[in-house]
Amino acid sequence: MVEVANASQADIVWLVREDASSGEAWVSRCVTLGEYLVAKEGSEIVGFLRFSRFWGRVPYMEMIRVLPGHRRSGVGTALFLAWEEAMRGEGARLLMTSSECDESRPQDWHRRNGFTETGAIELPGLQSVPEVFFIKPIA
Protein backbone atom coordinates (compact mmCIF):
# COMPACT_ATOMS: atom_id res chain seq x y z
CA MET A 1 0.00 0.00 0.00
CA VAL A 2 1.31 3.43 -0.97
CA GLU A 3 1.14 6.32 1.46
CA VAL A 4 1.67 9.89 0.27
CA ALA A 5 2.84 12.66 2.59
CA ASN A 6 4.71 15.94 2.57
CA ALA A 7 8.45 15.37 2.46
CA SER A 8 10.32 15.97 5.71
CA GLN A 9 13.87 16.96 6.58
CA ALA A 10 14.62 13.24 6.99
CA ASP A 11 13.84 12.72 3.27
CA ILE A 12 16.33 15.31 1.96
CA VAL A 13 19.27 12.95 1.37
CA TRP A 14 17.06 10.59 -0.66
CA LEU A 15 15.51 13.49 -2.61
CA VAL A 16 18.91 15.01 -3.43
CA ARG A 17 20.01 11.65 -4.83
CA GLU A 18 16.82 10.92 -6.79
CA ASP A 19 16.02 14.48 -7.95
CA ALA A 20 19.58 14.97 -9.12
CA SER A 21 18.88 17.98 -11.35
CA SER A 22 17.92 20.15 -8.36
CA GLY A 23 20.84 20.16 -5.92
CA GLU A 24 20.79 20.12 -2.13
CA ALA A 25 20.05 23.82 -1.58
CA TRP A 26 17.00 23.74 -3.85
CA VAL A 27 15.71 20.44 -2.43
CA SER A 28 16.04 21.80 1.12
CA ARG A 29 14.23 24.99 0.13
CA CYS A 30 11.38 23.04 -1.48
CA VAL A 31 11.02 20.69 1.50
CA THR A 32 10.88 23.68 3.87
CA LEU A 33 8.16 25.28 1.73
CA GLY A 34 6.16 22.04 1.51
CA GLU A 35 6.72 21.69 -2.25
CA TYR A 36 7.57 17.98 -2.24
CA LEU A 37 5.33 14.99 -1.74
CA VAL A 38 6.82 11.55 -1.22
CA ALA A 39 5.24 8.16 -1.78
CA LYS A 40 6.23 5.41 0.62
CA GLU A 41 5.65 1.69 0.69
CA GLY A 42 6.31 0.79 4.28
CA SER A 43 9.33 2.86 5.28
CA GLU A 44 10.79 2.96 1.75
CA ILE A 45 10.36 6.06 -0.45
CA VAL A 46 9.39 4.90 -3.94
CA GLY A 47 8.55 8.21 -5.64
CA PHE A 48 8.17 11.95 -5.33
CA LEU A 49 6.33 14.92 -6.79
CA ARG A 50 7.91 18.39 -6.75
CA PHE A 51 5.86 21.48 -7.48
CA SER A 52 5.93 25.25 -7.37
CA ARG A 53 3.50 28.00 -8.23
CA PHE A 54 3.52 29.60 -11.69
CA TRP A 55 3.27 33.38 -11.26
CA GLY A 56 3.26 32.68 -7.53
CA ARG A 57 -0.29 31.31 -7.62
CA VAL A 58 -0.99 28.55 -10.19
CA PRO A 59 0.18 25.14 -8.89
CA TYR A 60 2.77 23.81 -11.33
CA MET A 61 3.91 20.18 -11.17
CA GLU A 62 7.61 20.44 -12.00
CA MET A 63 8.63 16.81 -11.61
CA ILE A 64 7.06 13.49 -10.78
CA ARG A 65 9.29 10.45 -10.53
CA VAL A 66 8.69 6.87 -9.48
CA LEU A 67 11.55 4.42 -8.95
CA PRO A 68 11.80 1.92 -11.83
CA GLY A 69 10.73 -1.13 -9.83
CA HIS A 70 7.53 0.63 -8.73
CA ARG A 71 6.31 2.13 -12.01
CA ARG A 72 2.92 1.21 -13.45
CA SER A 73 1.67 0.25 -9.99
CA GLY A 74 -0.31 3.40 -9.17
CA VAL A 75 2.43 5.27 -7.28
CA GLY A 76 2.50 8.21 -9.72
CA THR A 77 -1.27 8.44 -9.76
CA ALA A 78 -1.37 8.37 -5.94
CA LEU A 79 1.17 11.22 -5.81
CA PHE A 80 -0.74 13.22 -8.41
CA LEU A 81 -4.15 12.73 -6.76
CA ALA A 82 -2.79 13.71 -3.34
CA TRP A 83 -1.27 16.86 -4.86
CA GLU A 84 -4.45 17.71 -6.75
CA GLU A 85 -6.52 17.34 -3.58
CA ALA A 86 -4.07 19.45 -1.57
CA MET A 87 -4.14 22.20 -4.22
CA ARG A 88 -7.94 22.07 -4.35
CA GLY A 89 -7.92 22.42 -0.55
CA GLU A 90 -5.82 25.57 -0.92
CA GLY A 91 -8.41 27.03 -3.30
CA ALA A 92 -6.61 26.41 -6.61
CA ARG A 93 -8.83 26.32 -9.68
CA LEU A 94 -6.19 25.35 -12.26
CA LEU A 95 -3.17 23.05 -12.33
CA MET A 96 -0.22 23.22 -14.73
CA THR A 97 2.54 20.89 -15.83
CA SER A 98 4.83 20.45 -18.83
CA SER A 99 7.20 18.12 -20.63
CA GLU A 100 9.63 18.28 -23.51
CA CYS A 101 7.79 17.89 -26.82
CA ASP A 102 9.50 14.59 -27.62
CA GLU A 103 8.47 12.90 -24.34
CA SER A 104 5.37 11.02 -25.46
CA ARG A 105 4.96 8.76 -22.40
CA PRO A 106 4.85 11.64 -19.88
CA GLN A 107 2.45 13.52 -22.16
CA ASP A 108 0.17 10.48 -22.40
CA TRP A 109 0.23 10.22 -18.59
CA HIS A 110 -0.71 13.90 -18.23
CA ARG A 111 -3.62 13.46 -20.64
CA ARG A 112 -4.84 10.32 -18.81
CA ASN A 113 -4.91 12.41 -15.65
CA GLY A 114 -7.09 15.12 -17.16
CA PHE A 115 -4.58 17.63 -18.51
CA THR A 116 -4.94 19.21 -21.94
CA GLU A 117 -2.17 20.73 -24.03
CA THR A 118 -2.22 24.51 -23.99
CA GLY A 119 0.90 25.56 -25.90
CA ALA A 120 4.67 25.29 -26.18
CA ILE A 121 7.71 27.48 -25.91
CA GLU A 122 11.28 27.14 -27.12
CA LEU A 123 14.05 27.60 -24.57
CA PRO A 124 17.23 28.05 -26.66
CA GLY A 125 20.36 27.14 -24.74
CA LEU A 126 18.38 25.27 -22.08
CA GLN A 127 16.65 22.56 -24.10
CA SER A 128 17.10 21.23 -27.60
CA VAL A 129 13.33 20.79 -28.12
CA PRO A 130 10.31 22.92 -27.13
CA GLU A 131 8.55 22.54 -23.77
CA VAL A 132 4.84 21.63 -24.05
CA PHE A 133 2.54 23.00 -21.34
CA PHE A 134 -0.62 21.36 -20.02
CA ILE A 135 -3.43 22.67 -17.82
CA LYS A 136 -6.22 21.04 -15.84
CA PRO A 137 -9.15 23.00 -14.40
CA ILE A 138 -10.17 21.79 -10.94
CA ALA A 139 -13.12 22.79 -8.77
Mean pLDDT: 95
The secondary-structure class comes to alpha+beta
Number of separate helices: 4
What helical percentage do the residues reach? Answer: 25-40%
Biggest sheet: strands side by side, in what order?
1-2-3-4-5-7-6
| Proportion in β-strands | 35-45%
Low-confidence stretches: none
**Overall 3D form:** globular
C-alpha termini separation: 28 Å
What can you see in these coordinates?
- By secondary structure, the protein is α+β, with helices and mostly antiparallel strands.
- Helix content is 29%, strand content 37%.
- The chain contains four helices and seven strands; from the N terminus they run βααβββαβαββ.
- A hairpin with a 2-residue loop joins strand 2 and strand 3 (44-54).
- Helix 1 (12-18) crosses helix 2 (24-32).
- The two termini are 28 Å apart.
- The model has no long low-confidence stretch (mean pLDDT 95).
